[in-house]
Design goal:
By secondary structure, the first copy, chain A, is mostly helical. Chain A has ten helices and no strands. At the A-B interface, helix 1, helix 2, helix 3, helix 7 and helix 10 of A face helix 1, helix 2, helix 3, helix 7 and helix 10 of B.
Amino acid sequence: MQPFIDFILELDKLKAVTRKTRPLGLDRYENSAEHSWQIAMLAVSLVDYAAEPVNVDRVVHMLLVHDVGEIDTGDTIVYAEDGWAERKAAERAAVVRIFGLLPEARAAHFIALWHEFEEGTTPEARFANAVDRAMPALQNLANHGQSWRENGITHARVVARIGPSIHAGCPELWAYVKAQLDEAENAGWFGSRR
Amino acid sequence: MQPFIDFILELDKLKAVTRKTRPLGLDRYENSAEHSWQIAMLAVSLVDYAAEPVNVDRVVHMLLVHDVGEIDTGDTIVYAEDGWAERKAAERAAVVRIFGLLPEARAAHFIALWHEFEEGTTPEARFANAVDRAMPALQNLANHGQSWRENGITHARVVARIGPSIHAGCPELWAYVKAQLDEAENAGWFGSRR
């Protein structure tokens, strides 16, 4: 039993990994653990809108594990311009370390889910990526562009960076988000390019 | 699309519901959203140790929704001595309100999962309850009894309150936790009855 206990207590550290978005009504930044929960709920809620038929359970499992590597690397805003290859290599090493606390078959199961999400080539991974990308945009839209303004992110950068993923996994969600982003641009909720 | 967006933003409020346990290494209290993520991970990790064969996906879905009613009611420490009937009635009303933001079929799906967890009569619900009860004990054991000492909870109260549920859903986990609780009692990590 001890390996499982060591593993689940190691996961406590994801609660200390802060993102750039603030939960509605709170002053603090969101952490990657509560974010993982919320996008799992978003995936279950929106499954009928997935671009292709998906096994929602595998989507949920992928979303639960997709950020675990951040325990070692920290979160990086999706709008970072470069350094992604190094960052992803570090996250890959991190998930091998963290899931490696578990017995081998269970570790392999979780690591495979993490890779499936990262590669984004299955219908499940495309839908999972879509909800992961959409969630902070939905929070920003409800927050008057809080993290876009704090980080100098333009409307064009948001559309270019999250649009293709959301559209590929959940086209109706992208249609909704895109219309809202355009309204937010008119409302002045975006940053200027720094 | 709007009902789904209203729903997922409403869920942001669970990130503001604080529990009595502190994540390891952090000064703040844990919230119910990150807790829900962690116990979903614990369930997937420990599924081979469930007392009976379970559909792990339904266990995960139950755990993701089981605390959503706390958005309206707040969290109550499991060791509270009374008031449970009123508290559960309030939570029931809350989940009807919150899941009711969604289209009817999706709302009914989530509400049914919430009831299954609360009733605890299926193998999946028993296993889900076991990991939910075990997690704060595991955190306290790693935290030198932080929330037991802060809230004056005795060893006897912990064993009586969480033992039957953990044993019913995951007997090997209970054997592990019970041995650790006994060591913690010798180490003086429990509160005195107030």
